[in-house]
Amino acid sequence: MRFIDIISRYRKAYRNWIFILYNLYRVRKLSSKSNYKIKVILRSNGKKCEVNPELASLYAFLLKYPNIKDIDIENNKIILIFKEHKLKFIEPWKGDLVSVFANEEYKFLNPRNEVVIDIGANIGDSSIYFCIEGAKKIIALEPYPYFFKLLTENININGCTDKIIPLNAGYGKDRVMRIDESFIPDIGSDLKESEDEKGKLINLYSLKTILSMFNIKEAVLKMDCEGCEYNILSEDRDIIKRFKRIQIEYHYGYEELYNYLEDNGFDVKYTKPKNIYNPSASNPNMKIGYIYAIRKGD
């Protein structure tokens, strides 16, 4: 993004935009950023507050999108109006509000009156999107306890408890694994097993098990789980055919996933992979994009 565009965004967002940009530049050089706060003055209403650098940046970036009708900051939360719905998010910088709401990247799944399995629910942004778009029920899997706490809190404050069933669980072959409960993940962190015997035990569930647990006959599937998506290659043909539409964010190439879905009766498209270096992942050299699959005949 051009520097002139960045300046324009912050000028539209804040009355003290020069001060904020200086502080954002300054914080990059600090070894510890966890307690760093920036005093901001919102241009829209003159509100003064102290926020962390991530929230200051997110607010400025969300303002430019026509899908976001209004936006505010309250007690370190983002408040936004999306399609007449007033939504609040705790620690929104840990999620991906730009992709989910501003760009509506899950619009393809057309969740109205559908059961949605949301693998990699993160802070709940995608699950809440499916809820307000009219999904019948959402099964939201998030393995990291830190994200899971945010997921449940965001579901509660947005009034989606009747639609969203949160599971502190991951996706893969059915088993139990131990993870570090104190670990604070980044949005791109993949799931790592802890060697500490005091770590928290969580379940990994296959799609077959999830469908059986909730007596689901048909559903749509969203997957964004930093590499665990390739576990779908082990799912039986009769299981995968119970999904009408599937959207997968792939992280290490699309070929195997594409062939698997096409061989199992789906019309499949994909976006061109982007080479991304993600230091939070076990394998940081990623080839990222989306796969879109529609069951033939639907």
UniProtKB/TrEMBL annotation:
InterPro entries attached to this UniProt entry: FkbM_mtfrase, SAM-dependent_MTase, SAM-dependent_MTases_sf
Sequence ranges assigned to domain Methyltransferase FkbM in this UniProt record: 118-267
Pfam family, any one: Methyltransf_21
NCBIfam families reported for this sequence: fkbM_fam
UniProt name for this protein: Methyltransferase FkbM domain-containing protein
Organism the protein comes from: Candidatus Nanoclepta minutus
